[in-house]
Amino acid sequence: MDLRAQLLELLAPWPVGHEPLPGVRLEDASTELGLRLRFRVDGERVWVDVTPIADARRYASRSSAFAFGYRTEGGRNPVDASLGLRLCEAIAERCTANEARVLAALRAPARRGESAEGPDARIREVEVESLLEQAGPTSESFYTLSPYVGCVIGCRFCYAQSNVGALRRLLGLVEAPWGSYVDIRRNAAQVLARELAEPERVVRPIKFCPVVSDPYQAIERKARITRGCLDAIAAADRPWPTMLLTRSPLILADRERIAGLARAWVGVSLPTVDEEVRQHFEPRGATVAERLTILRSFRALGVNTIAVVQPLLAGSLEAHADALAECVDSVSIDVLRGVEGAGEQFADPRYAETARDEWQLARAHALVDALNARGVPVWRGELPPVLALCNS
């Protein structure tokens, strides 16, 4: 099923390019991290999140089945509140006329049992109509690429689980805890090859998005969807800057492929260098030693290396900064975005303080200072600055 087409069908008969309000143009829809509509306002992108009403927390307007909330990329460049409200109200009105039909279409495959695995399957093979999704502010546009949806590494604090879980429920799939299911996009490499060959597609960085799925989670050992996508990028007529983020040592199996790309960046999530803390919060992820080995191995091959520190977890701050300074070219730092399913882990008296916003912010500032003292550039956003400039 083409989820993007069904999301746009909620707005029928509005076509892509339609202006629901003066100066507000519908650009596209995204299903990568939940359901989102993308608009262009005064040269900037504005996203409208489309959330099943049972899963909605905050919203500007609603229909019978969905809630609508507006935001800009990463919360930067705030939207005029009056404009955001009017846009969501217009969307809600249009959606009301279409939602019953779209909901029936979304749930039909599960009801008919069209998937060989069935709606209660934890591992499903699916096909996609498109793969690359535009993201980022207009000045730093890039594409996200997810070979899988769902992640068996299953970090309980991952903020993707709420949106991905809501989408599964919308599709009529059986409820399953985060970390216990994954959709394999079996035709991803073929779709990617077609998209990269489209002459009208602008060359922008491609980010293998680790939010909805780690590209090197265990299923990659058998399915090799990420490897197929790398081969498609390598075979493309134009050089595509590529960034991969992971918590898995399986990426080392593709180190020669990645090093052979025209422009490549490899990064790991490294919220702590204390192995006991890592084991407590990320028991299925690579060990701290394995993550550092990934960075050293790629750096030795001349590949740009980065680390993402999100959330910040307990452990020696000085040791953390020393390890990063040895292995990476730059670091992204961001704070915990809610405990999600990790309430029990953060309730441990050893770590309860680390869930507080004040602790996260203080730790972030302290780590920035420690990295600056070691000459390590720190950035905030989706891409390291050098990669963000790779647009043509």
Short description:
This protein has 392 residues and is of the alpha/beta class. The chain contains 14 helices and 16 strands.
Mean pLDDT over all positions:
91
- Radius of gyration of CA atoms, rounded to a whole number: 21 Å
Q: Largest sheet at a glance?
A: 8 strands, mixed
Structural class: alpha/beta
Helix content: 25-40%
- The number of helical elements comes to 14
Strands side by side in the biggest sheet: 7-8-11-12-13-14-15-16
Secondary-structure element string: HEEEEEHHEEEEHEHEHHEHEHHEHEHHEH
Low-confidence stretches: none
The backbone outline, from C-alpha atoms, is globular
Number of E-type strands: 16
Assess the beta-strand content as a share of residues.
Answer: 15-25%
Distance between the amino and carboxyl termini:
32 Å
Describe the structure.
The protein has 392 residues and is an alpha/beta fold. Helix content is 34%, strand content 19%. The protein contains 14 helices and 16 strands. It has helices spanning 3-9, 81-96, 99-112, 160-170, 188-196, 220-223, 225-235, 255-259, 275-281, 288-300, 317-327, 343-347, 357-373, 385-388; strands at 24-30, 35-41, 44-52, 61-62, 66-72, 123-126, 133-135, 142-145, 148-149, 182-185, 206-208, 242-246, 264-269, 304-309, 330-333, 378-379. Strands 7-8-11-12-13-14-15-16 form an eight-stranded mixed β-sheet. Helix 5 (188-196) runs parallel beside helix 7 (225-235), helix 10 (288-300) runs parallel beside helix 11 (317-327) and helix 11 (317-327) packs across helix 13. It is globular and about 55 Å long. The two termini are 32 Å apart.
